[in-house]
Write a structure and sequence with these properties.
The protein is of the alpha+beta class. 10% of the residues lie in helices and 20% in strands. It contains 2 helices and 4 strands, in the order βαββαβ. The longest helix is centred in the middle third of the chain and has 5 residues.
Length: 96
């Protein structure tokens, strides 16, 4: 029978011991909805890139070119911050 650990032996929660390791965790499988980009409407303001909590917006040559679905959790922040006159990003149910 294993002995229970005291609170002093249990590692502190929410501590990231190895900084810069987010790239190794693929969290996109949590998604229910996914962002869809209409490239014709995108004005490349990059507000979505700045606002994305998962750094799942792919930018090349200062232009938004798509999403990294390995890390996108489908939160919809990118669609919410897209300028309302543009609405280049919409959310669709995953699997459609």
């Amino acid at each position: 029978m294993s002995r229970l650990k005291s609170w002093k032996e249990v590692p502190m929660a929410a501590v990231i011991e190895d900084a810069g390791n987010a790239e190794t965790y693929e969290t996109g499988g949590w998604r229910t909805f996914k962002p869809v980009l209409d490239k014709e409407k995108c004005i490349h303001c990059l507000t979505c890139w700045i606002s994305c909590p998962d750094t799942a917006i792919v930018v090349k040559d200062e232009k938004m070119i798509g999403f990294n679905f390995k890390h996108c959790k489908g939160c919809g922040v990118c669609a919410d911050v897209c300028p309302k006159k543009v609405t280049a990003i919409t959310m669709e149910q995953e699997g459609k």
